[in-house]
Amino acid sequence: MRKPLMSGNWKMHHTHLEAIATVQKLSYLLFQEDYEAVDVSVHPAFTALRSIQTLLDADGIPIALGAQNCHWEPAGAYTGEIAPPMLAKLDVAYVIVGHSERRQLFGETDETVNKKVKAVLAAGMTPILAVGETLDERRDNFTEQKCLGQVEAGLAGVAAEQVSGLVVAYEPIWAIGTGQVATPDDAQSVIGCIRGEISRLYGESTGDAVRLQYGGSVKPANIADLMTQPDIDGALVGGASLDADEFSRIIRYKAS
User: Fold this and answer.
1) Which residue among the candidates 99, 108, 133, 197 is catalytic per the annotation?
2) Which of 14, 121, 162, 208 has the lowest tally of Cβ within 10 angstroms?
3) Catalytic: 99?
4) What is the pLDDT of residues 61-92, one digit of tens each?
5) What is the pTM assigned to this prediction?
6) Buried b (16+ CB within 10 A) or exposed e, 45-68
């Protein structure tokens, strides 16, 4: 049985002080039974990672620390970049790799995404590999080809035992920050295809084990319906995760 993972991607929001306040409030809203039912990660800006690590450690809060990106080299002359070992030393557990905003705005390719997946694994952390199609690609019935191509390229050269422990997030680009959301059936259709592709590439046991998230305008109002789908194992949440009340309601979807 795959345990759901609810991840809050804060993007370029929250100073370290705002991040601390958000995590503190979130911890007050969640209970032991919530953590037993769902894994939770928060992905603040790099400037807040140390502050949140200290808070989680000091207060014994069972929320995993995540990063939004990294470079693929362990060190080097890459001004402004963050190396995976630097994140690992901060007890970062999850790193988002290949988010559509990184691909579209900063020119990340399948090749660089694959390098990052391998680098995150080599540093002892878990990648959250993000894949998704544009609205034009969806209209042209290119969704499956685009997403499965990104999965295969992003995981190229990764061993089956490593794939079984990572996370793939399906985020249709047309649904990110737009208020639009794929219907539960639409999300299940694509995510089911992703699980099938991973099973084809790495074996059925790997396909059964890997956790698959949905992302794209996830809110308390739609999370329960999404989570009824057999292949959806959680959510990569954007704007709604910035507010502790909203994010806690997503995490506690079974109690709603």
Assistant:
1) 99
2) 208
3) yes
4) 999 999 999 999 999 999 999 999 999 999 99
5) 0.97
6) beebbebbbebbeeeebebbbbbb
